[in-house]
Amino acid sequence: MMKNNIIVICAVLLFISCTAQKNNTVITIQHKNYQEYASNYIEEKYTEVSKIPDSILKKFGESLVAYNYKKEVLQTYSCPIFRLKTKNENDPIFTNMMDAIDFTNQYENQVINIYKGDTLLSSHTVNPAYKTPENWKEQFDEFNFFQNTLLRHTNEIVTGLPAAYTDVYAYKAQLEKKYFVFFLEGIDTHFVIKNNTIYAVKMVCNETEADEKSYAAFFNCLQPEFVEINTYFKDIELAFIHDKQLAKKIAAFKKTKHTENQKVTFIVEE
Fold first, then answer.
1. What are the beta bridge partners of residue 264?
2. Per-residue pLDDT at 89
3. Which helix (H) or strand (E) is 269 found in, with range?
4. Is 235 helix (H, G, I), strand (E, B) or coil?
């Protein structure tokens, strides 16, 4: 009898284990490869600046990271850009945003944040289609170059910016030094993974009098607040979403009733 009971218990535990594994989604993000891509990319940008004619450097040099800082003093943080699973209007409506993200690793899709200590030097979105000019005198396109070089970041505060749009200042919290940070294509918001859950980052000021003093005081007061991803998208203003098709999908999601997604385990390979 005892032997039979043990066999039954083992069978039940095996069934539970198999069911749990079936209902558990494992997502692996090869962050170390994103970091390696970013390092090689920065190396190429330094090489490019070393080939720029003196006449261009004299005019624009103060704005270039590669002209003002030695590469060895930089700390690089890669923040991948993922997409939501939208290809056409006939795609199913999202009912849970955790399930809607395509976590396919595409290393060229990323934002590179470059620091020197606690100072953010540059926040740069990779454009893999950009090619270094072979002949600077004949092929130099000022706008194209500045869109694709490492420009020095400035802490410029946009006065009069509505409080709802202060999420763009999430860089001031330097979250990528503490968490895995990523973006979704077409949306400016920072997202982080904590405890196998995705959170959007909202920048909030809880000092009621800060905005009455000055906008600079309000900006300095801003601190990150982590909002579960479904809650965030239920409340998001569609003006935050730059892609029209994606905005339609999110508008449809906002009308749905939230459903529980499968259990997700994130493995971020550093």
1. 25
2. 62
3. none
4. helix
Measuring CA to CA, which residue among 226, 229, 227, 233 is closest to residue 256?
233
Residue type, 60: F
State both tokens at 99. 């399930």
Q: How far is it, in rounded angstroms, from Cα 113 to Cα 183?
A: 13
The predicted structure's pLDDT at residue 122: 96
Q: Longest Cα pair distance anywhere in the chain, in angstroms?
A: 91
Split the chain (270 residues) into runs of 10 and give each run's mean pLDDT.
Answer: 46 40 80 98 95 87 95 97 80 85 96 96 95 84 91 79 77 94 94 95 82 74 94 90 87 83 86
Render 22-90 in DSSP notation, one character per residue.
HTEEEEEE-HHHHHHHHHHHHHHHHHHHHTS-HHHHHHHGGGBHHHHS-GGG-EEEEEEEEEES-SSTT
- How high is the pLDDT of residue 242? 85
How confident is the model at residue 21, as a pLDDT? Answer: 44
Please write down the HEC assignment for all residues of 118-140. Answer: CEEEEEEECCCCCCCCCCHHHHC
Please tell me the distance from the alpha carbon of residue 122 to that of residue 113, in angstroms, as a whole number: 6
Q: Which of 88, 85, 94, 80 is nearest to 36 (CA)?
A: 80
pLDDT at 232: 94
99: helix, strand or coil: helix
- How high is the pLDDT of residue 88? 66
Residues in the chain: 270
Place of tokens 């749009």: 165
Tokens representing 266 are: 């994130």
pLDDT given at position 211: 58
Output the CA–CA distances (angstroms, integers) from residue 150 to 64, 81, 163, in the order listed. 6, 18, 29
| DSSP state letters, 250-264 | HHHHHTSPP-PPPEE
Structure tokens at 202: 């909202």
User: What is the C-alpha R_g of the chain?
Assistant: 23
Tell me how far apart the alpha carbons of residues 265 and 195 are, in angstroms, rounded to a whole number. Answer: 9
